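Allow me, if you will, to draw on your knowledge of protein folds for a short while. The matter concerns a single protein, recorded as an amino acid sequence and a row of backbone structure tokens. Kindly check, if you would, that the fold set down in the tokens agrees with what the sequence suggests. You will find the record immediately after this paragraph.
***
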Amino acid sequence: MSRHAVVYERAGRGYSAYVPDLPGCVATGRTRAEVERRIREAIEAHVSELRRSKEAVPAPGAWTGDVDI
């Protein structure tokens, strides 16, 4: 098991999410709960496909933080 950072963003009338360490792994949803569920499903499918095609699963390298300005 590994832990990857997920970036969540407000997108118009909904939400979007992406995983910096897994290029192309994205999800959208009308609610926060929906996008959180969908990105989890997208990550599982993305990693499963990488393993199926015998490609390396990238190690977690991104992180999140806050900056006060």
Q: What stands out?
A: The chain is about 30% helix and 20% strand. Residues 18 and 26 are 4 Å apart (CA to CA). The mean pLDDT is 95.
